[in-house]
């Protein structure tokens, strides 16, 4: 169901008709003032803010919206992290503009999360959760980031997901939240909505954002690049401590409609910008991610001069449904938490032969054991079996997975499912501090695009949604702190004035009418480049890596990137060419970081030329790009 139309029955009953009437009246007046039919309100969604559907308008309409609407905070992305930052900033009275390249805002990484989100067990403590996160991350996590999530996480869940945007989490007969166990957790602390928790959370958060008049959503708008000041020069990347000495500043983003008739990008200026653009799984041949996860945010931040870190740490989910000719479909960690067993094609359970925790070992370990067993037996896949659980319970607990499988002739209540690992989550990214600030002034990051230090070399199950929530809230709190007092107010006004008046660095592509004179990129050319990127990363920078393969990938993807940049500069700007450029640059950064890191740790599992695992001593050295 679309963002504009969706509202769960539980939430709809809580909205008063009087509030809805007042809100819709205000929207109608603003829409009249702007003269735009694509500024939408929906009676079915009751009280709501503004949603501008750029795909239905024109370049002139977009320019008008940007000019007429004040933006104190620009949020690129509308998943959990972006919504959390937008909602809490809007509560403070800031004018927020959220941007997504999707025409349906539910088309985001957060929507596809299945298993759940960390809350707290009845006998839990922050130290117990911190221990689990550190063990999963191979001990190279940032202890302060781990402590922040463990301490702040439950409160953020209560504030946003139980109060501000109530999520219909599964509950026990007594009304309490149903808690489940997932791999590498020492307690059952995961709350969920059936087997599609990301959907329930994303819908609830987006609906709350849609109901706030301080938030404008621009859908169908792709970010071509971040808007930075002209006289910045090179950005020092030595440490976040030097960020105040940097001259360059982020002042928004250059946006472009995703439709073929789009002609020119427009700069949406803002004193503060949040990157919440999600991950990069689509850069691999096999992935659980949506097709839009091409690493856009990482590449844009890198070009703007922000520091990136831990780019070699790509997490592979052990169990995605393997059906030749179809995109991979995630089979949640919760299946193994509920007793699903890994078996080979001979029917032998093999997990405990590789690790004492068996199916509940860390994800990188489970992924490797599956690959090893496939190699040992010569099979194209392994099997995941939960058919021993009661049929009615199984279909009620995992309805989305059950429906997906049954539509393809598989019955999880009667048979084991074919599985292979697939690229799932990225543990590195744009470096931030505990408040979500990057090394580039004016730019914040949250969610999968950010490297907060929380995950170390591997992510613990169900931390991702919570991390987006916690750091999204932290960004809004930091903006509030920065504006506090007379000095803060003066500084905020000065930065706001700068955002509107400063000269921006050139976009780096033919604009001002010249763009339309260039030929359109042929889809088969874009597809061919993407196929090479996916193949190269999957074969050389995958679950198990070898030094010679990493060197080959680093060199080859550098050449691919150079070709893509020439192709990009010689063709008309479009969503496809923008994403291709970002994909090529991000892929090259992943391969370069992996080739430089000779230590095998966490998701970066490197075998020596003799086939022996390389040194796995805990890595204190952080590789900065």
- How would you name the CATH homologous superfamily of the domain at 325-422? Succinate dehydrogenase/fumarate reductase flavoprotein, catalytic domain
Quaternary structure classification: single chain
**Regions with little confidence, pLDDT below 50 for 5+ residues:** 1-39, 41-48, 232-246, 611-625
User: How many helix segments?
Assistant: 18
Side by side, the strands of the main sheet go 1-2-7-4-3-11-19
Pairing-aware structural class of the strands and helices?
alpha/beta
Our measurement of the CA-to-CA distance between the termini, rounded to an integer number of angstroms, reads 41 Å
Structural topology:
Layout: H1 9-12, H2 17-34, E1 39-40, E2 50-53, H3 59-68, E3 73-76, H4 80-91, E4 96-100, E5 117-118, H5 126-136, H6 143-164, E6 190-191, H7 197-210, E7 215-219, E8 221-228, E9 250-257, E10 266-269, E11 272-275, H8 296-304, E12 308-309, E13 314-321, E14 329-330, H9 333-337, E15 341-343, H10 351-354, H11 363-377, E16 382-385, H12 391-397, H13 399-406, E17 417-426, E18 429-431, E19 443-445, E20 450-451, H14 464-482, H15 485-501, H16 523-540, H17 547-569, H18 575-596
Parallel strand pairs: 2-7, 3-4, 3-11, 4-7, 11-19, 18-20
Antiparallel strand pairs: 1-2, 5-6, 8-9, 9-10, 12-18, 13-14, 13-17, 15-16, 16-17
